Amino acid sequence: MFGPNFDSVLFEDSPFVPPIRLQSAFQIAELVTAGELHPVIAIASELRDVFGEQIQFLNAHMDWLTDKFSVNQDDLDDYYFGLILPTTLIVSAYTARHNPIDDVLKVYFPVSDDPFFDRLRGYGIRNIPLVDKLLHLESPDPLKSLAPVLNHCDFEVFSFTDWYQVGLQASRHTFQQFAQLY
After folding, report:
1. Most buried residue, 96, 133, 135, 175, by CB count within 10 Å?
2. Buried b vs exposed e over 109-127: b needs ≥16 C-beta within 10 Å?
3. How far apart, in whole angstroms, are the C-alpha atoms of residue 139 and residue 162?
4. With contact defined as beta carbons under 8 Å apart, do 182 and 28 qualify?
5. CB-based contacts of 54-58 (< 8 A; 24+ apart in sequence)
6. How far is CA 102 from CA 27, 128, 145, in A?
7. CB–CB of 168/155 below 8 Å?
8. Distance between CA 177 and CA 93 in Å, rounded?
């Protein structure tokens, strides 16, 4: 469908590229300067909210997306998980440093009767400890802390669909933009 070039769906003002919000940049800066969170954790936390709003926006415009991009609900679900998984793994791995893993899983990878979400929970269980080891919070540079996690997500994929890859690329792009603002 897309191959290695995602330009047909990830372009300036694309509905699949979450917008950079000044309010989010201020919230990230406040968390970091107050000493509450490392920049990579603050950015990942904020982006989880931004990405949640993004998927609500896309769901509300599903008819237009279907016409313009030939996307269906399964494609959109794959995109969403590619978009949200890197930030979710970062936040859940960091949270697991301070909380019991079962509590972390309940929040970020809840139990479900749906086999898809059951598989997602299994992915979280396997990857939270790995991502925790990859988070290098010694460096104040959020991109240095992020790079090993994104490389892991590129290698240990949840789905092999093109739309999942679109989500991963959009997540990477948005994170890098926020990191540059920081």
Report:
1. 175
2. beeeeeeeeeebbebbeeb
3. 33
4. yes
5. 54/18, 54/83, 55/80, 55/83, 55/84, 57/15, 58/15, 58/16
6. 28, 12, 25
7. no
8. 22
Task: Extract the tokens encoding 19.
Answer: 């917008």
Q: What are 74's two structure tokens?
A: 């399964």
Q: What number of residues does the chain have?
A: 182
Task: Record the tokens describing residue 65, joined without a space.
Answer: 């997306």
Query: Tens digit of pLDDT for each residue in 8-63?
Result: 888 888 999 998 888 998 989 898 888 788 999 999 999 999 999 999 999 999 99
Please give the radius of gyration of the chain, using alpha carbons only, rounded to the nearest integer: 16
Q: Which residue has the tokens 């802390």?
A: 145
Helical packing angle, 39-60 and 62-69, nearest 10°: 90
In angstroms, the CA 135 to CA 27 distance is: 21
Q: What is the rounded average pLDDT for all residues in the chain?
A: 88
